[in-house]
């Protein structure tokens, strides 16, 4: 199965970083394409997008200053299918991408994504204050996973993502 293409550019406000694409995302070639994934609804309800986007429009978010990548590019059924070797390689590739593109914020979509990348054992929701970022000058933000399997109430998830909108200074859509 093909990898889902990154959407990265210089000058982005936020790059959203997932574990890896789902099988459905791999089939369609777009980020967060599983219909049970709440990512696009969360972005809209948190005020980060002016309307509800479809996964097929993921490249359009570059115009809003948002990019997409993953710590591992290979689509799998679940994150538990990612190997240690893939994480090791993925950490280095992600660090290189962040150093090259230098977004203002690296938003890790799930605490596990952040802890795999940073090699830290814990993380709080939101901005990681008081600790040096892995890539100097790129602020790190940890958001809940958007998977439909997450048990956190949707209003709480939306509230965490809303912190990003407030930081970017964007007007609420």
Question: Explain this structure to me?
Answer:
The chain has 173 residues and is an alpha/beta fold. It has a single domain (14-168), classed as Uracil-DNA Glycosylase, subunit E, CATH 3.40.470.10. It is built from 5 helices and 5 strands, in the order βααβαβαββα. It has a 5-stranded mixed β-sheet, with helices on both faces. It starts with 13 loop residues before the first strand and ends in a 5-residue tail after the last helix. 35% of the residues are buried. The mean pLDDT is 93. GO terms for molecular function: hydrolase activity, acting on glycosyl bonds. Residues 9-153 form the Uracil-DNA glycosylase-like domain. InterPro entries: MUG/TDG, Uracil-DNA_glycosylase-like, Uracil-DNA_glycosylase-like_sf.
Please tag this protein with its features:
single chain, 173 residues, alpha/beta, Uracil-DNA Glycosylase, subunit E, five-stranded mixed β-sheet, 5 helices, globular, TDG/mug DNA glycosylase family protein, EC 3.2.2.-
């Amino acid at each position: 199965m093909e990898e889902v293409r990154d959407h990265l550019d210089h000058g982005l406000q936020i790059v959203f970083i997932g574990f890896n694409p789902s099988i459905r995302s791999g089939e369609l070639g777009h980020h967060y394409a599983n219909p049970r994934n709440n990512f696009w609804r969360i972005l809209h309800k948190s005020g980060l997008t002016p309307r509800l986007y479809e996964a097929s429009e993921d490249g359009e978010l570059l115009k809003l200053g948002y990019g997409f990548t993953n710590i591992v590019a290979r689509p799998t059924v679940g994150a538990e299918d990612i190997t240690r070797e893939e994480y090791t390689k993925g950490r280095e590739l992600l660090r290189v991408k962040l150093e090259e593109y230098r977004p203002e914020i690296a938003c890790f979509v799930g605490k596990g994504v952040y802890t795999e990348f940073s090699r830290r054992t814990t993380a709080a929701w939101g901005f990681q204050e008081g600790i040096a970022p892995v890539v100097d000058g790129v602020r790190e933000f940890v958001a809940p996973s958007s998977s439909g399997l997450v048990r956190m109430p949707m209003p709480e998830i939306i509230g965490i993502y809303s912190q990003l909108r407030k930081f970017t200074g964007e007007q609420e859509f």
